[in-house]
Amino acid sequence: MVPVFSWIVLGGKCRNCKSKISVQYPIIEALNGVLYVLVCAVNGLNRSSLLYCLMTSALLTLSLIDWRTYEIPFGINVFLFLIGIVATVLDRGNLISHLIGAVCVSAFLEILFLLSGGRAIGGGDIKLMAVCGLILGWKQIILAFLLGCIIGSVVHTIRIKVSSAGHMLAMGPYLSAGIFLAALWGNAWISWYLSLLGL
Q: Where is the Prepilin peptidase A24 N-terminal domain (predicted)?
């Protein structure tokens, strides 16, 4: 939260050159801090929460970039891949779940990418679901994908109606939202759903 307070104290300007600093930067910093608190409040203070916090920062960053440019930086996916390796090692008792998670959604998206000639989904989105599937495991990444599609459909439909936004959308922010929700509440939601089915 230090950058937020610094921005307020300095009146939204650089300390040295006095150039104006966009308000989006303290907003993103504040949101990042709030999400960190949420992660720890829901998941507790443990090693997985540390990994989820790092994942959250990466998801927030790539969401903003993808929203503006329709591209997810490769370096952010590499960073998430490293988190996935650590998460898999720490949870090696569920190694198979993590490995399946890395391919179950991304393989489907890769097929969709090939069949559509890249028009239906972007390569960055495929890599995002692969590396986050490695972090979360197969059950949660499937849920994350479904949530991301639902959120994306609802939000973008509203944007088209309200602001005449084009039909092309950046999936990164919506997939990131689904990943974040699945990471924190996925197991509970999956258990609840299976209980409804009597499983």
A: 2-40
